[in-house]
């Protein structure tokens, strides 16, 4: 029997990943048409990929220090020419030193590393975590991964034993979680974030979702928190984090803290789950010592934006050593994370310091990216606040806005006639008429009866935002 | 309930991956002790990692052209200084051209690419396949992957629907296959390779294994062939490949051709499954048109040896478009393969040509690696042929030798007393006494009643081979 959609793994068939779904595929077709000069029939000149947090596809330039180091790691022969590098090519001495240090630890970036990552890079991450959190970190519990996605995949594969295994995921969520759970045939236990409270966590809602799942016979094992939020852009308060930790501790749940946007914070301050947990442990003299925490980070986001390099790591706290042995075994089957990505993780957690030759340029580039993101977030938020039927929380963090849209009944009927959800219908028309690709809220999950879309605020300029505003007005007029 | 080895995913617990298992972990501990200067109690000065095909961890130097291009991809600012690159740093003009071309297609290597890979790189691979095979190749059926391992993982995830789904795997096999099937809870259908015929495939054995599995109610879906062989080092004849294709066509099995060692061939010629299939289709006027073939390749092996970069691809032939849509969806959940690895795939399939400025150096380096591998393979084979109770087929391809060892009954008893298989016991003693890490045959599977180990022939020098010979004699004497 030949393979068909009906006899292959139906878990793959059921998995949904809207960020790279039909809209994204269509936007790539438009882009290819325009590139071939066959876009004369299209009402736009450019495709704006606001569907995915892909900074360097848009106007974000890589940080010079990172790439200078990477170029030397790729071709260590260049280090034979320090004079040329420094004087003719403008490579500062700290770039050379960092590359030499990494090469001394890695050997060749073309060689497999240890499966959990290059030991010295793990040590370097542990030191960063100590500086960030003010608490000790142990390199032996750090695992390098091919981006945070691969880390999430590893953790879910180990935690989920069978169909009954439940993982609490926020709604809206980044669809990596629901897709991975579909592939594993485990049970997502959704809990709604509170849009009226800037998309924060609400403990009553979480408890209620947990109790309901338990009553349904689900073996709830873990709660996922994405902070800062994707797609919501929320940045959690310390009080919210404490409440989640207390709840997870009471119910013996693993906490999976997806903290890949930890430097993308515009309002308040990022609180890591690790630092809050350690603080609570200290305050209570051991009450929370049994809690299992996995926290993830990545080079893909922040001001680094090196997602094409697929680098990241996760740190485990409080896990049973025999469980960790199985995590190690799982990652070893895919051998190791890309080594150049591992090196960029080391650079991310140890960037140039004040006084270093590369510091000034690094700081200037970093700040420019940060300020650019904040300015665009604010500008788009302003534009949304003037659109009929659109409401959007103030941007607090990450790279996304997730406005609510209220559509006329006639638009909802037209969507149904096309076999689409109303938000998907809206986003499809937006793409076809403006070239702007955003993701419908249904791709992330949303409270029943609400509609949203997610847009990144990475794309340069404001013209595309203007075209959203114009499209929206016409759409509302058409279906009024 | 906290996570424990007993309540986590038991499929992970059951999976075995000996190449990075206990012996490998112990060898890394020895290496770390020696590096810290705490090796005084050890009877050796160096650890030789002959357990894994990791060329650049040993003496294999990266190919200069590849790394010069990669350094420019990482830091395109260097391209602003063509004079310095060419005159001071010795970058030939074709390196600059290649980097510019790749950057024009990729944008930034720090950006996510399309999930199935950069379109222009897929086109480039298709053209390579056309040159290699003499038959058309279609870029839209090519998928870039993070090494071949990730490609195998994708394909098995889609092909295996449930417990009953059976995948025929060679014995001995590369344990990625058995481990992935354990994770998927699908059924491995082992078929023995014929050690007496240089580890070739034997059609009667394959048919017999297939019929037995069918009789047991297994829904056999696919046959995996590793050619050249891992761990066997065999290189299949065209007749063997034809027989497998004919069998798979008759039984409607997907053929998964793991061809990552396609350039590591010392005896005869590499025949790709694609070229043999197309030839058979042509000869028979369509008899084999329905066959589904997935063939995999990688930058990790061959003379390239860039495994740390995690680059590879697979090509699909004859797959249903809706099945391919699900393969696309599966790969999209992990976003994309590392982009710098994708670029190195492009370089691998389009190396410098005669007349290009980089050709002479490339050719010299490539040939030196090839000849070095062949010489070491031959030297180790010679050494093995003088060891009591050891028999080893002539090295034909890949990077491995897989000798049979016959151990005295007292050694077998001593192993049992330690709770180990005899070959594992042997390999553990070898590591402890010589620092040479090889993998016991039981990690790959072996015909009942036989014992083997796998060694790479990547490590430089012959001293370590001498220490295996010496160890073996002492071991045999001790347990005689």
From TrEMBL, chains A, B:
Cofactor(s) in the UniProt record: pyridoxal 5'-phosphate
Keywords: Aminotransferase, Pyridoxal phosphate, Transferase
CDD domains referenced in this protein's UniProt entry, alphabetically: AAT_like
GO molecular function ontology, one term from the record: transaminase activity
Domain Aminotransferase class I/classII large: 92-462
Keyword match Transferase: yes
Pfam families xref list: Aminotran_1_2 (PF00155)
BP-aspect Gene Ontology terms: L-alanine catabolic process
UniProt key word ATP-binding: no
Sequence similarity: Belongs to the class-I pyridoxal-phosphate-dependent aminotransferase family. Alanine aminotransferase subfamily.
UniProt-recorded name of the protein: Glutamate pyruvate transaminase
Source organism of this protein record: Ophiocordyceps australis
